[in-house]
Design a protein that fits this description.
This protein has one domain. Strand 12 and strand 13 form a beta hairpin. It is built from 6 helices and 14 strands. Helix content is 21%, strand content 42%. It has helices at 5-14, 35-40, 58-61, 90-99, 102-108, 179-193, and strands spanning 2-4, 42-48, 51-56, 62-64, 73-78, 119-121, 124-135, 138-149, 151-155, 158-166, 175-177, 201-212, 215-225, 234-246. By secondary structure, it is an alpha+beta fold.
Length: 252
Amino acid sequence: MEFDNKLVKTVVGKCNSNTNPYDMTKIDDISKLPETVIKADYFIVHLGNGKHKFVKGIDKGYHTFEKMDDSEVIEWQYRPSILNDFSVSEASILSLANNQKILHDFLYRYQNYDIGIPKMYSSERKRGVSFEYFAGNEKLSFENLQIEIDLTLENAGYVTVFEGKNSKLNRWTENFNIYQLYNPFRYYYNLKQNNKLGIEKLTACYLIRQKNKGNSIIRLYNYTFENPLDITSVKLLKKREYHLKKKEFEDE
């Protein structure tokens, strides 16, 4: 059940589609999978070197976002910036949350140490990454994989990798492809295991923004992998929803 980019381009060409063939295998949530694939209970993994594979068991590849409780909803007042709503890219979503100290509040508010100023590393692309992992009982091998990391925060040895997405108006994304968090997590985990980085704690965070009547709502889900070698071992650590309210402050 393996295939490569050459076959994808051939199929897309036969369908007279203008779709970028390299986007056909990047399926962020289950709703974007073809109905025939959903019924057959398969999902796609990237093997590296332009190769892909169908794997049985959609629940191994996708995780449903946990329900947000009312007690986890926070109204967040902030001084608006002229650039806040100018761009809707994934990078701008993460920049907005970082600049307005939402990421700091979510990750570090209840820590017992002085957080200082967490170090931010914006969008990175890691090439030539190779590793093996399990999806349940199935072992998968990857060679020369390209890893996309939307954002990384580090503070006192605590490292968090981020994936940022926009959600449609009045409809939250229900699930996500776990590899979006696992691959960056695993990249840093391997560096830790090989004693190349002194990481004290490693987690992965999914951020979703929904724009509503000129304001933004941001949902954050912080995960870890109980077994770093198994993509299905994803576990929620905490979650929170921020309702951003623009406020004009008086000049000091």
